[in-house]
Write a structure and sequence with these properties.
Tetracycline Repressor, domain 2, mainly alpha
């Protein structure tokens, strides 16, 4: 049975993503859950601690979803589009970019999130590029480390500096196309065009 703390974190995460880390108050969360604010303060003495727990929860969900996609052995181009769809599903209710909000209003929590994301995303992007080279979707003459860093910096610059989540998604799709075209062999380009036609 789910403990009260976990239920608070899960519901708060949903509200923070949907309506914003800054705008949602402890009162809002208590009212939404039908509990007293005192119950929330029993587990979290301030809003910042609840936001930190919520971002940890979301990162665990993202990591689990990523591992599930990786276990399906898609080709590297399809894999990137599957991950894009996963992020769209996880953050479909968000009105403003979560990373933009954290960077603006809660910089210390943002720094912690970025430290974790840096390790996870770089690991994934590097593995995706190496798989693409091995399977003939990406060119063998590319610099894996540089291209990994370029793509990482591009994606996180979009997320940290774009206010509206829908604008973020549109720009991320363009970044994915840009990244893939820079790496792709004719085989990779054909796979890219197939997925772009279905977006």
């Amino acid at each position: 049975m789910e403990n009260p703390r976990d239920k608070i974190v899960q519901r708060a995460s949903d509200l923070f993503l949907r309506l914003g880390f800054k705008s949602i108050t402890m009162d809002d969360i208590a009212a939404d859950m039908g509990i007293s604010k005192k119950t929330i303060y029993k587990y979290f003495e301030n809003k910042e601690l609840l936001i930190e727990a919520s971002t940890d929860f979301v990162q665990i969900k993202v990591s689990e979803a990523l591992e599930e996609i990786l276990s399906q052995n898609h080709n590297p181009v399809q894999e990137n589009f599957e991950i894009r769809r996963m992020f769209d599903a996880l953050f479909q209710t968000a009105q403003t970019s979560p990373l933009y909000q954290l960077k603006k209003h809660y910089p210390e929590i943002h720094a912690k999130v970025m430290d974790c994301q840096n390790r996870e995303c770089n690991r994934f992007i590097r593995a995706n590029i190496e798989k693409g080279i091995a399977q003939g979707y990406y060119r063998s003459d590319i610099n894996v480390e540089l291209n990994m860093r370029f793509y990482y910096m591009l994606i996180f610059s979009i997320n940290e500096n774009t206010i509206l989540e829908q604008d973020t998604r549109d720009m991320e799709l363009s970044a994915l196309e840009y990244h893939t075209r820079a790496l792709a062999t004719p085989k990779g380009l054909a796979e890219l065009e197939k997925h772009l036609s279905n977006t």
